[in-house]
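Retro notes, structure queue

What went well: the backlog is down to a handful. What didn't: a couple of records were mislabeled last round, so from now on we paste the full input next to the output in the thread. Example, using PTS sugar transporter subunit IIC from Lactococcus garvieae TRF1:
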Amino acid sequence: MDASIFQIILIFAVTFVVAIDQFSLLQSLYQPIVTGLVIGLILGDVQTGLIVGGTYQLMTIGNMPVGGAQPPNAVIGGIMATVLAITLGLQPAAAVATAIPFSLLGQYGVT
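Corresponding output:
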């Protein structure tokens, strides 16, 4: 599936808002399962968005910033996993595994 320019701009806007503002009062909205739903709505495949977002959420549910250690950014990884699964037609497990480097890069951008 090819994404249109409008869809790419919407995905960028959602990613920007969620990545910048993930430490506000609405922290429960900035979870991979919610962002998977939103990206699924934008790309037209809500079911895959929820499945991939839920899978990524389960993988990162125990990651806590303890001491000086920072876990990978679950929000960026969840968004990338959803985009990869829908646009490339990957299985949820393959999309989650492929998105892990993006979550590491996202964490470097936050810190």
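Agreed that this is the format going forward. Reviewer comment attached to the example: The longest helix spans residues 92-110.
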